[in-house]
Amino acid sequence: MTIGFRILKRDRVAPAELVAEFAKLPVANVSDSMSRMTAAGPTLRPMHTSGGMAGVALTVKARPGDNLMLHAAIDRAIPGDVIVVDAGGALDNALMGELMLAYAIKKGVVGFVINGAIRDLDNFRETNLPTWAAGVTHRGPYKDGPGEVNVPVAIDGMVIHPGDIVIGDSDGVLCVPIDEAETVLKATKAKSEKEIKQMAAIEAGTNDRAWVDRALKERGCALLED
């Protein structure tokens, strides 16, 4: 087996019922529940019109500007997959466009995370399959490889293993590791419930803001208005 040019099997995938629970939650709240230490960075932005995403990671490590292994991944995709591509963030060549998008939709792919460029942007907006990418260019890809499918990849320090949960909304994308998913889900639900109560207090005019001045004093801020 050649390291750098191979297709592996996923050993396991996150349960569908767990993915469905994450689909109900804001990415920001999940991120906060992971100590704000995990993110794919601000470079990846939504290329679709609206809506969020939750699915299981099918990972691709691609040579910048080459989409052979992305084609191979789509061929192997199953319904509920999010295809995550580490192509080094290169923007000189688009890794996919409307034809690959149509095929992926037919296969049941629920989203793309591409650390690289796409083309046919209008089609991405019209079909509205959740897609985050680093940029757009009309110039097409090469199809020579090498690359890998179903290996761990990293985008701006966020590590994604095959089978992990990948979520996204207008704030960006986030990977939740399988082994931590239950714990993160519980913490995020608790945070969301707390925010609902806080929003109700804001509406009622009873929101407690004493913590702000307390934090300022604890950190040594001079409150000259006192």
Automatic annotation (TrEMBL):
Amino acids binding Mg(2+): D120
Coiled-coil residue spans: none
Cofactor(s) listed: Mg(2+); a divalent metal cation
Ligand binding (substrate): G97, E98, L99, M100, R119
DNA-binding keyword on record: no
Gene Ontology biological process terms in this record: methylation
GO molecular function: metal ion binding; methyltransferase activity
InterPro entries according to UniProt: RraA/RraA-like, RraA/RraA-like_sf
One family name in Pfam for this protein: RraA-like
Swiss-Prot/TrEMBL keywords: Magnesium, Metal-binding, Methyltransferase, Transferase
Keyword Membrane: no
Protein name: Putative 4-hydroxy-4-methyl-2-oxoglutarate aldolase
Originating organism: Meridianimarinicoccus roseus
